[in-house]
Amino acid sequence: MSHTALIRSHRKPRRSASTIAMRAGVAGGVLSTLAVAGSAGAANAAEPVTQTIELPTLTADLAAQVAHSADATQQTAANYELQAERDAAAAKAAKQAKADLAEAKKKAEAKKKAAEAARKAAAERASRDAERTTLTASASVSTSTSTSTSTATGSAAAVIAFVKAQIGDAYVSGGTGPNSWDCSGLVQAAFKQVGISLPRVSQDQSVAGTQVSLSNLQPGDILYWGSAGSAYHVAVYVGDGMFVGAQNPSSGVVEKPLSYDPPTGAVRVL
């Protein structure tokens, strides 16, 4: 035993466990409060105060609405693109249709002109055939009446003698002799023998004198084929229903009856 155990002043008073615990709890609470307050103060001093905005929560319904809006936008864009393609196709089709219509009109006009030309040509052939039929009959009558009366005299005899002297010569387009001729070149040269100057071409020779009927021909008359003023062939009537002319490259200068190729008309310059 300690030598001081019996001395009262040296003994410490006993404390209960509950009292010690309570005091410890109070002290701990105070210290915790101070620590928290200190921390908060330090944080407030170190960081600026900011305002917190609460964002909406992306719920399943909102997500579905966003997806639906995106699909609708995409569909609208697709519809615009499809409409643009349709408009372009329609414009192209309209342009092609316009071009096809113009081409069809052009072809129809060409066919119409061709048909009109064919109709005119047929009418001219029919008229020419009718004239030749009439002239053949007239030539037959003329031949029978002139056979015994057609005797060339004077200038007519000289013209006829010249053209008959050229029978057998060649036909050459543009020929004016002395050994090759075309139809108007031979006629011009024949009448030059008697001092008569005729135009060079058959069209002008067909109107160079007085028009006479084929039923009243005289030796020395100029025969023509085609219309007066636009004749395409001429020859000289030599009497007895015969004529002499430079016919074509295969025949040359020949003497033929009127029935061989009935003329359209005749002119008299003697």
Looking at this protein, list some descriptive labels.
single chain; 270 residues; endopeptidase fold (from Nostoc punctiforme); 6-stranded antiparallel sheet; rod-shaped
Whole-number mean pLDDT? 77
Rg, Å, rounded: 66 Å
Let me know the number of strands.
8
Q: What portion of residues is helical?
A: 40-55%
Which superfamily, in CATH terms, is the homologous superfamily of the domain at 127-268?
A: endopeptidase domain like (from Nostoc punctiforme)
For the biggest sheet, the summary is: 6 strands, antiparallel
Please give the count of helices.
Answer: 5
Structural class: alpha+beta
Question: Could you outline the blueprint of secondary structure elements for this entry?
Answer:
Elements: H1 17-46, H2 60-146, H3 154-165, E1 170-171, E2 180-181, H4 183-192, H5 202-205, E3 210-212, E4 222-225, E5 233-239, E6 242-246, E7 253-257, E8 265-268
